[in-house]
């Protein structure tokens, strides 16, 4: 029999892990506690325990060309940024296209994953699952943990003195579904992640007033970037990444600072981040809502009173009826023993954010924990491509077996707002791609296929680049790269016939300007 791999969860990471197992000739069994695929992206009207929870208006923060799995572009008529229902539709098409459903066991919860009796020699895991109250023991050669990190809300009430005296209503953003709860109310949103800003903007359309309290501020980007192009297609290019990484720290930060303040000067809106790191919030409305007085930005909360709140460095109290804690999520792997993924003061010791460093055998991997500046789908897919090859023992391009690698990365496991990825997403993807021999060589292509080479270097770093060669090579990759702008412009150029657009011209201008 082939090598059996347990996949925990059938969301974005679980689906791509299952597919990569099949690509490598492994035998995946994917366990999903709910009755359907989609994980985070499957909206349900009721909040379900142990499952992520969306509000109906959630739209992807990354554009479709940057968020696609690398061998399965989005249909050209899908919008550029995807409402959650369209994203789920894409995941369903992916599962169907690659025949994943027959490998998924629905309504099955993974209760525990423990080292098998002969772990030191076999690397096997014993996995206990539960279906309809009945438990079953399985043995697997390897395990990929794809259960995500948006199920256990972080609600640090002890950090908010007086909250027990507060007479109004309060809840975590996970509970939020519709803005009508805010009708005519004075609303306080605590925290400035993507959910916090989204909820504040939605609330401000019906509320009496809305205040966002943020201790650290944030960079805010609009999805609609330079000349109306999607932000990530402009921001995440090999050229930009090279500039960011070649320049000395202060210059690189200065450049980013300049770019993010082009839309509006954050300082004037009370948003200038304290720290230097860069993980922006994506929202198209916030600055105009601040400018029209619908939303006010305040510092962190000092304490709550009966029906008001006091902010740091602000003497007066502010009357409040309802509080939304947008304070992120805790990481939890209830089915894993403590020592498998050691989480110490919110850090887990994971090699390349994936493999627990102290296991004798690299037969357990955690997927999708990373919070990249960019789309999570291609990143988890790349992790899965690497992991399945490590499981298989074909450690392409690494002479020493994985588990002898001593250097490891400390992967911060804080709430999602704090999750700072020190490496550039692109650098990380290239690293993993080089492990499996799928990293595109721009210089190599310059001679053989200059058009493709230039598109790869100056254009957006779309996932198809990682299917041009190596294991998992996909015939359609070159064509997908050369037509990426057509698919981006198709859904919006709906009144005039689409001429062949050429971002090349604007690109040459940009290059000229940079030089």
From TrEMBL:
The keyword tRNA processing does not apply. Keywords: Endoplasmic reticulum, FAD, Flavoprotein, Membrane, Monooxygenase, NADP, Oxidoreductase, Transmembrane, Transmembrane helix. It is found in: Endoplasmic reticulum membrane. Its EC number is 1.14.13.148, 1.14.13.8. InterPro entries: FAD/NAD-bd_sf, Flavin_mOase, Flavin_mOase-like, Flavin_mOase_1, FMO-like. It is a single-pass membrane protein. It is an enzyme of class 1 (oxidoreductase). It catalyses: trimethylamine + NADPH + O2 = trimethylamine N-oxide + NADP(+) + H2O; hypotaurine + NADPH + O2 + H(+) = taurine + NADP(+) + H2O; N,N-dimethylaniline + NADPH + O2 + H(+) = N,N-dimethylaniline N-oxide + NADP(+) + H2O; hypotaurine + NADH + O2 + H(+) = taurine + NAD(+) + H2O. GO terms for molecular function: flavin adenine dinucleotide binding; N,N-dimethylaniline monooxygenase activity; NADP binding; trimethylamine monooxygenase activity. GO terms for cellular component: endoplasmic reticulum membrane. Its cofactor is FAD. Broad spectrum monooxygenase that catalyzes the oxygenation of a wide variety of nitrogen- and sulfur-containing compounds including xenobiotics. Catalyzes the S-oxygenation of hypotaurine to produce taurine, an organic osmolyte involved in cell volume regulation as well as a variety of cytoprotective and developmental processes. Belongs to the FMO family. This is Flavin-containing monooxygenase 1.
């Amino acid at each position: 029999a082939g090598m059996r791999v347990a996949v925990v969860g059938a969301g974005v990471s679980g689906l791509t892990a299952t597919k990569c197992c099949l690509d490598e000739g492994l035998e995946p069994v994917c366990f999903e506690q709910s009755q359907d695929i989609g994980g985070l992206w499957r909206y349900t009207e009721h909040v379900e325990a142990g499952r992520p929870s969306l509000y109906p208006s959630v739209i992807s923060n990354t554009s479709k060309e940057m968020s696609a799995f690398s061998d399965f572009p989005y249909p050209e008529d899908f919008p550029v940024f995807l409402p959650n229902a369209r994203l789920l539709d894409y995941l369903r098409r992916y599962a169907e296209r690659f025949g994943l459903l027959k490998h998924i066991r629905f309504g099955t919860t993974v209760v525990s994953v423990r080292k098998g009796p002969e772990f030191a020699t076999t690397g096997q895991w014993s996995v206990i699952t539960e279906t309809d109250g009945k438990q079953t023991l399985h043995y697997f050669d390897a395990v990929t943990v794809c259960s995500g990190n948006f199920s256990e809300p972080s609600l640090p009430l002890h950090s908010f003195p007086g909250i027990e005296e507060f007479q109004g209503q309060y809840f975590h953003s996970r509970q939020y579904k519709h803005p009508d709860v805010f009708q005519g109310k004075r609303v306080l949103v605590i925290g400035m992640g993507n959910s916090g800003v989204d909820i504040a903007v939605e609330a401000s359309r019906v509320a009496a007033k809305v205040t966002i309290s943020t201790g650290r501020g944030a960079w805010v980007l609009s999805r609609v970037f330079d000349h109306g192009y999607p932000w990530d297609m402009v921001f995440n290019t090999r050229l930009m990444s090279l500039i960011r990484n070649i320049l000395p720290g202060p210059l690189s930060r200065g450049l980013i600072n300049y770019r993010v303040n082009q839309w509006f000067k954050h300082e004037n809106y009370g948003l200038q981040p304290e720290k230097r790191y860069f993980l922006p919030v994506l929202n198209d409305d916030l600055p105009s809502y601040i400018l029209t007085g619908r939303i006010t930005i305040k510092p962190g909360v000092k304490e709550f009173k009966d029906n008001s709140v006091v902010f740091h460095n602000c003497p007066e109290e502010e009357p409040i009826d309802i509080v939304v804690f947008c304070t992120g999520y805790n990481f939890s792997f209830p089915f894993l023993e403590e020592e498998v993924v050691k989480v110490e003061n919110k850090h887990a010791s994971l090699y390349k954010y994936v493999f627990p460093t102290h296991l004798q055998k690299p037969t357990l991997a955690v997927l999708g924990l990373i919070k990249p500046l960019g789309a999570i789908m291609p990143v988890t897919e790349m992790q899965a491509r690497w992991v399945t090859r490590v499981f298989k023992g074909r450690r392409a391009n690494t002479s020493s077996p994985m588990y002898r690698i001593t250097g490891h990365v400390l992967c911060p496991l804080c709430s999602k707002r704090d999750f700072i990825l020190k490496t550039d997403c692109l650098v990380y993807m290239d690293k993993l791609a080089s492990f499996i021999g799928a990293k595109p060589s721009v210089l190599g292509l310059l001679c053989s296929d200059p058009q493709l080479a230039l598109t790869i270097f100056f254009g957006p770093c779309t996932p198809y680049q990682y299917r041009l060669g190596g294991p998992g090579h996909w015939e359609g990759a070159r064509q997908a790269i050369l037509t990426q702008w057509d698919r981006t412009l198709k859904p919006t150029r709906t009144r005039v016939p689409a001429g062949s657009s050429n971002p090349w011209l604007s690109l040459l201008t940009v290059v000229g300007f940079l030089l």
